[in-house]
Amino acid sequence: MSDCIFCKIVKGDVPSEKVYEDESVLAFKDIHAQAPVHLLVIPKAHIPSVRELGEKDGALLGRIFSTINRLAEENGLAERGFRIVNNCGEEGGQTVHHIHFHLLGGRSLTWPPG
Question: Which residue ranges does the UniProt annotation give for the motif Histidine triad motif (predicted)?
Answer without folding.
Answer: 98-102
